[in-house]
Specification:
The complex is a heterodimer of chains A (314) and B (502). Chain A has 314 residues and is mainly α. Chain A has 16 helices and two strands. Chain A has two domains: 31-158, no CATH class; 160-181 and 204-307, no CATH class. Chain A has helices at 8-18, 20-30, 33-55, 60-65, 68-79, 86-100, 114-125, 127-131, 140-147, 161-170, 183-201, 208-227, 235-240, 244-251, 262-282, 289-306, and strands at 133-134, 157-158. With 502 residues, chain B is an alpha/beta fold. Among the domains of chain B are: 114-280, 3-Layer(aba) Sandwich (Rossmann fold), CATH 3.40.50.11540; 368-430, no CATH class. In chain B, a hairpin with a 6-residue loop joins β15 and β16. In chain B, α3 (172-179) runs parallel beside α5 (209-218), α4 (181-195) crosses α7 (266-276) and α10 packs across α13 (418-501). The chains are: A mainly alpha (314), B alpha/beta (502). At the A-B interface, α1 of A face α6, α9 and α12 of B. Bound molecules: iron/sulfur cluster (2 copies). The site of one iron/sulfur cluster has 15 residues of chain B, from α12 and α13.
Amino acid sequence: MHSGVLNTNQIMRQVIYALALGIIASYYFFGWGIVFQIVLGVATAIVVESAFLRIRKLPIKPAISDGSAVLSAILLAISIPSIAPWWIVVVGVSFAIVFGKQLYGGLGNNPFNPAMLGYAFLLISYPLQMTTWASEFLSFSQGFDVFFNLSSIDGLSGATRLDDVKTQLSLGYLVHELQIYSISQSLISIGFLLGGLYLIARGIIFWHIPVAFMLGILTTSILLFISDSQLYVPPQFHLISGGTMLGVFFIATDPVSASTTPKGRLVYGFLIGVLIVVIRVFGGYPDSVAFAVLLMNMTVPLIDTYTQPKVFGR
Amino acid sequence: MPNQLGFDGGVVIPNPYPVEKVEIIQAPLPNQVVLPLQQRVGDQAIPCVKVGDRVLTGQEIATTKDSFCVPVHASVSGTVIAINEQVIPHKSGIKSTCITIESDGKDEWVKNPGCGPDFLHCDTSTMIEYIRISGIVGLGGAGFPTHTKVARAQDCHTLIINGTECEPGVMCDDALMQYYPREVIRGVEILLHICGASRAIIAVENDKQEAFNSLLMYNHNERISIVHIPTKYTSGAEKLLIKALLGVEVPSGGFAPDLGVVCQNVATTKAIFDAVVESKPLVSRIVTVTGSGVEKPNNFEVRLGSSFDHVIAMSQPNKRSHDIRMGGMMMGVDVKDGKVPICKITNGIFVNDQSKKPAAQECIRCGACNQVCPVSLLPQQLYWYAKSENTDKAMDYNLADCIECRCCDYVCPSHIPLAEYFSFAKALHRKTTDDQYRTDIARERFEFREYRLERNKQERTEMMAAKKEELKKKMANDKAQKNKVAAAMARVKKSKKASDDA
Ligand code: SF4
Ligand code: SF4
């Protein structure tokens, strides 16, 4: 049936376009690394997905052209440090496509967000590479050398602000003694925020999850902040740090692994927000978007069952 | 507060083939008409004419006693040339017995009884009978016999007249309200009289200002109000219209009269006027012809039984090959070709250039379908269960409430034919429950038989025991009797002896 709304391929493409601002901001601050990550990630996704479809004796072209594998690859590529060595993205994307998607039967059948599954796998297996971030702009050749292990990353790298703050706080510093904001982080976050608003305006994602997600973060972090403003960072820090904005608009809203009922989406988004702050503050990992999303992915069938809308006349 | 003039879900679909001016063009008399005896519901009517008979327009040619069925009338004057099986407009392309009449071009009418303009003097049952003998069914597409519907709505307080176009692209009711506002209003008065309802509401979509104005001009009855409702697909569905107007929901599995409400379509209302006041049975209807395959989409007033091609030809079809569809773009059914006859429920004919449907992709659970379902189902979940033929689970998710409106299909980015899956799942469920029913019956029969055998055995043993007991008693009795007799004999003997001795 023909209608004015977008088809699945167009939706995936729009989401990819909406990522552009955040990616450009990231390029502006940290240079060519992110470009290499994306290019190699996408190539890996296409190769691995095609190979797998061939093994499953399924037509390759329709599945590749729906854009979902490419989108997963991009999401993962921009979530990992831009100076991570080349094989990190290759391993991660392969894992995401094979274990996150194809083994469940392909698009639409995967309970977990493939990109986040790949991310979690990488973080657990290669914690060092996954937590060392670029500290300055890398030129094409610098980025190339780092990407292919041709030169050392010493002097170009550091921990993220989120990580840094966490470490400092654990060392007994108080919040007012710390430098908690970073220009680069804030601008990248704004880039993803604008992209997300575009998607909502186009009707490609619904507002429920992003709004509930941010409310979840705010409620939890405000409660903590009120309880002790020297031990816990102010709420806005959680919103602009790490992968929050990417998570809010691009990861939690992945329709396949999210709740589908309107009420369910609110519950799902809110709890992801809560979990993110809880894991960041009390957990062992520096950033927690992936874990929060994966945990909530598991609860989706339950949420969907209990949030069915009232049927007409019942 | 009830959600006034609205309901959740539905989709706003602009008319894909708009026209400058909505008109009704009189189609010429066809050379022949094919009139199916099987209508949308009920039994097949029984022919009361033979091949070779001359018939007049409006003459009853097939009759029925079933209250879910209405008589069939000749829609032209002429000669019956065949009574045989022909393909009728139906999604499975089935055949049904049809009467074919060759027109003599004179259009001579038969005189039927009616109430005349002073219909208020007629009593209700007479009017209902006139509606029945005029062969009126719901002209909005449902095809339910009107006489039965009004007869069952005697205690209703509110009459709703559905002036919403059931589907985007169809314009026949809009045109009818513009051309026949007086007839519609009078028809509503007749219905008010029959049902005894205290008020009538005519619902017109807010993009049909001209129709609204025409009705307003002819309405001088304060019991009748004319209201605007938002233009949205599925507002025309009876239960949703009631929700939109009155803010109440017809309970799942229930009917409008349960709430004291009865709905009639505007075209049906006009047909009621024609029958009761003008003594004219239903022999023609207004049909919208539209689609990408015609240059001049519009409405045509055409005799029932004319072929689809007869009116398609009038709207300048292009030379390409076409897919022809009866009803609307959403809920209509594809028909084999343009030779099938126009019947009472043919409100629209879509003539589209043949095109390939986009292939369905995987469901990405985007939830677009959940947002538009007018009865608040979760099509995406239903699809999951329908696909895996898990009909019990689908029924848990209220599959039975799906009205197959295809709003969900319309928005699905993966082009999944969701409603088709649902109608399949419903059929499957009916079958499995039937099977279940049959095995249940069989098991019950078996169990009952066992029980009966057991009971017989028991009864028999009890009976035997009783008999034995009786026998014993009898024997004992007999013994006692014997003893008594013996004693008496002895006494007799004794006395005899005594007297002898004396
Ligand atoms: S609209 Fe289509 S793709 Fe989206 S959830 Fe519904 S069935 Fe799935
Ligand atoms: S076809 Fe059924 S499930 Fe789909 S929108 Fe209509 S009522 Fe809802």
